[in-house]
Specification:
Order of helices and strands: H
EC number: 2.7.7.-
GO molecular function, one term: nucleotidyltransferase activity
Low-confidence stretches: none
Keywords: Nucleotidyltransferase, Transferase
Protein name: Transposase
Mean pLDDT: 78
Number of strands: 0
Distance between the termini: 39 Å
Strand content: under 5%
Helix content: over 70%
Organism: Limnospira indica PCC 8005
Radius of gyration: 12 Å
Shape: rod-shaped
Number of helices: 1
Structural class: mainly alpha
């Protein structure tokens, strides 16, 4: 449970980071 939760949280963080970078580049 903890491992899967960590992977999901890490994946979400990576997606958020990528989204933030894309927004900054577009802006």
């Amino acid at each position: 449970m903890r491992d899967t939760a960590s992977v999901i949280l890490t994946g979400n963080s990576a997606i958020v980071a990528l989204s933030g970078n894309n927004r900054k580049n577009v802006a």
